[in-house]
Amino acid sequence: MSISAPRYAAGPLPLVSRTRRALAIYLEELGRLAGWGTWLVVAISYAAIVLAIVVNAELSSLLRGLTLSSFYVAYAIPIWPFLILLVATAVGSGSVSDDLSSRSITLYLSRPIRLEDYVGAKVAAVGTWVGVTAIGPGLLGVTILAALGLAPLAVSVSAFLVFLALGLLTTFFFTGLAIGLSALTSRALYAGVGIFGITLSAEIVGAAVSGATGNSSVLYISPVDDIETAASAAFQTGSATSIDPWGATAVLVVAGAVLFAIAWLRLRRVEVVGE
Amino acid sequence: MTGIIDAEAATKRYGEVLGLNGFSATFGPGITGLIGPNGAGKSTLFRLLTAQLRLDGGRLDVLGHPAWGEGAFRRRIGYCPEHFALFDWMRGEEFVTALLRVDGFSREEAARRAASAIETVGLTGAKDRRLQVYSRGMRQRIKLAQAIAHDPELLLLDEPLNGVDPVGRATLLRLFQELARSGRHLVVSSHVLYEVERLTDQIVMISNGRALAQGDLHKIRELIDARPHTIELETPDPRGLARRIASWEHVVAIDFPGPGRLSVRSRTPDAFYRALPELVVRENISITALRSPDDNLEAVFRYLTE
To answer: What are phi and psi of B25, to 5 degrees?
Structure first.
């Protein structure tokens, strides 16, 4: 074979920044995940949580005065965590597994981006939807109360910050759960069943074993109980919790971090997919 | 570094399975055919070249850069994967535009280039349809569109004619040749050998993760001429003919595959083809047919893998 030095047809082309290239993946993913089911659950979350916060605040003002603990109502019944779980399942189950099953992940990874850009964009897209559901309703409820003059400013600010902190904690855990399980399988259905099933079965098993044995520490395995416990302490309800709030928070943080690590390690080995 | 792609003892393992096994080859400018059966390591090589896989050993350079490397040089490569699964929720034009955005083009530039690439592959009429309704041939062409849309210098095309109808094949082959004429370098993999034969003489043959041979087809033929070559003859008296040629030094085996048929394996086919006419004239032997099953690229490959 005669060999000669390559003569390139095109000169260097201006590249937009790496951040903007990762942003392109994020925006595509964000749009892809925006199915009508996702919108519906998000809308229900906003309607239910904002209504609960506003109505309870009004009642509290009339009965015993509005305090920070009044806002715990948003977490008092575990509807909100389950709505967040629904969104995490809907948007997260196929986020990576669809790319793995179709092998279209190769179309991204063959381009001038790094694996961390791809993973970051996926996490951000899922996290955005989970965050919109986990953070937004609480903040909106407090903002409405403050705007209407129904809550003192100091209480509103405190409640705002607590909702933000709890929302971030919840977003971190459920995004990790969704991304972690989605990266583990190339079937979105399996990932979805895993995300929903793990959370639901942990809740049921935790409650059953705790009730049967009287050992409340088993409740740590339930993310919903962990969130409620952390919320109860953060909103200063003063009521005794079955498990330690700091312990519950630590469980959510560590579990979320482990799930992110699982996703990262799995995707670092994505090279074997399809071979 | 002298080639567009330089591989030196490149090795890639999947657990205990070797995807590439000390693959060494240099891919020059223009079109190079990468030929090998399924599982030979063609896709592994492409995925190594596009930094989807990391080399376990050896060296693999592409456009003068280590294949497993960061940087803008990666945008000088266009990659058309073998698989047909795409982002099915997208429309054709969205698909190409989205990937151009990941390549680093502005929104406007990406849209302009996507439209142009889609036109080049003849899919303008279907650009607004969702990919999930695309046929295999259309998928192949939209994959090609995303590979060429950013005007890369090197195109890695993994089985690009798979699933394309005959008219589409002819169109794509012309397109590949036009791209090469305009200064692009193409590596086209295939296990359908006549397709590559129509496209280029420059080939790299791969099997079991190793480069069996590289160069132009004629040089590879010279290479295999050192190995036994099969010639099939049809004659009314195959055993009589066999008795006469058995003593020829370059004949290493004689077989009778059927009535009136003789199969001869010769170490030097040129010598055989020179001696046979002399024998036919001298002995007045009737030969009704003569063919070599080794005249096409498929046979070349078979020889090298034996």
So the answer is: -165, 160
